[in-house]
Automatic annotation (TrEMBL), chain A:
Pfam family name, one: Paf67
Domain of life according to the entry: Eukaryota
Domain PCI intervals: 301-500
Protein's organism: Citrus sinensis
Protein name, as recorded: Eukaryotic translation initiation factor 3 subunit L
Automatic annotation (TrEMBL), chain B:
SUPFAM superfamilies per record: ARM repeat, Winged helix' DNA-binding domain
This protein's name: CSN8/PSMD8/EIF3K domain-containing protein
PANTHER family attached to this UniProt entry: EUKARYOTIC TRANSLATION INITIATION FACTOR 3 SUBUNIT 11, EUKARYOTIC TRANSLATION INITIATION FACTOR 3 SUBUNIT K
Pfam families xrefs: CSN8_PSD8_EIF3K
Chain ranges of the CSN8/PSMD8/EIF3K domain: 3-129
Listed InterPro entries: ARM-type_fold, CSN8_PSD8_EIF3K, eIF3k, Transl_init_fac_sub12_N_euk, WH-like_DNA-bd_sf, WH_DNA-bd_sf
Top-level taxonomic group: Eukaryota
BP-aspect Gene Ontology terms: regulation of translational initiation
Record field: transmembrane: none
GO function term, MF aspect, one: ribosome binding
């Protein structure tokens, strides 16, 4: 199967494996020790705001000032080195770790990291997370920043695995470094840090106690108004999403979903306070459910987030995450198209989302449901476009001839996915006949479908098996929009009628009326 | 990685059907390992079960007794799965179709049916000489009228939000 449009390189678009052969940033006249005045001012103010816990100002500087300075002064060079700015901030250890984290993040975004830089970034994360885990941090940082830390950590891990798997053009030097620093970006190391943040922060217990009204977390967006720090708690919280993402990259969907379980995605929460986190959570949740054949769960969540993005993306146009938001939006439409082709539904998809979907993938969805060769290549294309950048976590064997194996993980997931699609091939034929009849004999349907009766029985059982999903508690639910049962040799069709949701309607109206009454009470008639 | 242990885990995963454990395991096994004979056999067996081809499954399983005897309870687990799928699909099922699905015939099938009649609410119509029909217990999947109207049910948590208004 051709690897279609699978682009295993993330943005920035110009990153490729031969990065280290390119001109290093030294050649561009970069002096790591030169600190422009605006940078000096930036670090001094940021340091002060962090010490004074002015979360709003920190957020402004982090989101806006850092971006504009990067755009203006550091378009294609790194920021000044941490050593050069340290004395402006009292050589504060923690601030330097934070500065370095931003320094590396900028490097990854605008330039291409060398192997040494990747390893150094890993060391920095180790130090930073150790400090947080020891509970000695007394800051309040904006959720955006804390999310970005976890997100970037997982991204750099993914990037490293991709990089390391391309052994073909590695130099002697690089191989020596890889052998020497074999702990850097080790999969267990990554998982351990994320797990440690979850456990040390006790975030799962906090969320449990919050449900019983014994604790405030979501209500304050994770911020601590009792003079404490939000850093460990919120990092622990976001690490659950980080774990979901890592496990999806490894193809372990079940574990990924388990890690996410403490977060109730049917409600707002801290994960929705940052749009990047909201999208990443739902994207991976939906994808994992797709691979677990829980199509309706995936469709429901994709629908909600796509509607949300549609309504709110205009507010993020200036944000540095805008491109990523748009990209994930497109990918989720592709995944939704796949889900709906495998499991047609009428409910669960909202008007706006549906029309967008038809526009982008209407044609392709019709072709996908034909299940001919062309259909499989469309499934391949959409899957490859929308899937996560799967990785092989194990280190290469340095003895064998050096090959590139960075595509192996992706190829396996694609192959198994298409295998599943193939098994469902005959189901759309069954569906189209069931839609036309209220009852018919097995022998009749067998004739129409040009198979013998025993084969038809197996096809009908496949239909039942594939359309009845098993959730994590072992409960069976039917995903079928058209269902049937067999009485000896007769098929009786059961059409599911769309149900009017009176309950929801009344709840909404009750709340609305109460609001109206309260407003009226406040009106004074003179 | 001990392929022996992995193979046993895959067999357990087959036994867990209809849960998707088997595919979950495959996602985690490198492709070149999946090319080994014993894994290829297990994948074929899984394929037959996934597509309701029970007769093919039992035929293939008989050719690889070493694999299927590696884990105790294998046959019963697959029979359970077969009955599960049949219960989703049929209200009444011909004896021959059932026999093929659970790989029992003659006296052992009779014994099995008696057991199911006594303990699981199965009803037998007709006898062996005429074509016998087995009536499976009704559930929401083979009896649409039993389907609970889940769509309109509201979780208690949502109602609690309007308690202050109602109270």
């Amino acid at each position: 199967m051709a690897a279609a449009s699978y682009d295993y390189e993330d943005a920035p678009a110009d990153y490729d494996g031969s990065a280290d052969a390119r001109a290093s940033s030294q050649d561009l006249g970069y002096d790591p020790n030169f600190v422009p005045d605006s940078v000096k001012s930036f670090v001094v103010h940021l340091y002060r705001h962090i010490r004074e816990k002015n979360v709003y100002e920190i957020h402004q500087m982090y989101e806006t000032s850092f971006q504009s300075l990067s755009d203006r002064l550091f378009k294609d060079t790194p920021w000044p080195s941490v050593d050069a700015v340290a004395h402006y901030v009292d050589n504060d250890h923690v601030f330097c770790l934070l500065y370095r984290e931003m320094w590396f993040r900028h490097l990854y975004a605008r330039l291409s990291p060398t192997l040494k830089q990747r390893i150094d970034s890993w060391d920095n994360y180790c130090s930073l997370f150790q400090v947080v885990l020891h509970g000695v941090v007394n800051m309040q940082l904006p959720n955006q920043w804390l999310w970005d830390m976890v997100d970037e950590f997982v991204y750099q891990f993914q990037s490293f695995c991709q990089y390391r798997a391309k052994m073909k053009n590695k130099t002697e030097q690089e191989i020596a470094l890889l052998r020497q620093y074999d702990q850097a970006w080790n999969v267990y190391g990554v998982l351990n840090f994320l797990q440690a943040l979850v456990e040390k922060s006790m975030i799962i217990q906090i969320l449990e106690r919050e449900k019983e009204g014994l604790e405030q977390f979501t209500a304050t967006d994770g911020y601590d108004y009792n003079g404490g720090s939000n850093v460990l708690k919120v990092l622990g919280y976001f690490s659950m999403v980080g774990l979901l993402r890592v496990h999806c990259l490894l193809g372990d969907y079940h574990t990924g979903l388990k890690c996410l379980q403490p977060i109730d995605i049917t409600q707002q929460g801290v994960y929705t306070s940052v749009i990047g986190s909201h999208i990443t959570t739902i994207y991976h949740y939906g994808f994992a459910n797709l691979m677990l054949r829980r199509y309706v769960d995936a469709i429901r969540e994709f629908n909600k987030i796509l509607l949300y993005i549609y309504k709110t993306k205009q507010y993020h146009q200036k944000s540095p995450q805008y491109e990523q938001i748009l990209k994930k939006n497109e990918q989720m439409y592709a995944l939704l198209a796949i889900c709906l082709s495998l499991c047609p539904q009428v409910k669960h998809v909202e008007e706006t989302v549906n029309s967008q979907l038809r526009e982008k993938y209407g044609e392709k969805m019709i072709r996908m449901q034909r299940y001919d060769d062309e259909a499989f290549s469309i499934y391949d294309e959409l899957f490859s476009y929308a899937c996560p950048k799967f990785i092989t976590p194990s280190a290469p064997s340095f003895e064998e001839p050096l090959v590139n194996y960075n595509q192996d993980a992706y190829r396996l997931q694609l192959k198994l996915f298409l295998y599943e699609v193939k098994q469902q091939q005959l189901l759309s034929g069954v569906r189209s006949f069931l839609k036309v009849y209220s009852s018919l004999y097995l022998s009749e349907l067998a004739t129409y479908m040009e198979v013998d009766e025993p084969t038809l029985r197996t096809i009908l059982m496949t239909y039942k098996h594939k359309t009845h999903a098993v959730d994590s508690d072992g409960k069976i639910t039917s995903n079928a929009d058209v269902d049937f049962y067999i009485d000896d040799n007769m098929i009786h069709v059961v059409e599911s009628k769309p149900v009017k949701r009176y309950g929801d309607f009344f709840l909404r109206q009750i709340a609305k009326l109460e609001g109206l009454i309260n407003d009226l009470d406040r009106v004074r008639l003179d | 990685m001990s392929t022996q242990i992995v193979a046993r885990i895959l067999i357990k995963a087959l036994m867990a059907m209809p849960a998707p454990d088997f595919s979950l395991c495959l996602f985690l096994i490198p492709e070149r390992v999946q090319m080994e004979d014993q894994f290829k056999t297990l994948i074929v067996l899984s394929h037959y079960l996934e597509t309701g081809r029970f007769r093919h499954f039992w035929d293939e399983a008989a050719k690889h007794r070493n694999i299927v005897e590696a884990v105790p309870g294998f046959e019963q687990a697959i029979q359970s799965f077969a009955i599960h799928v049949l219960s989703l699909t049929y209200q009444k099922i011909p004896r021959t179709v059932l026999a093929e699905a659970i790989n029992l015939k003659g006296l052992s099938l009779d014994k099995f049916l008696e057991h199911q009649k006594a303990n699981c609410g199965w009803i037998l119509e007709g006898d062996q000489s005429t074509s016998q029909l087995i009536v499976l217990p009704p559930n929401e999947f083979n009896h649409p009228e039993l389907k609970k109207n889940v769509a309109d049910s509201i979780p208690l948590e949502h109602i609690t939000r309007i308690f202050p208004i109602l109270g």
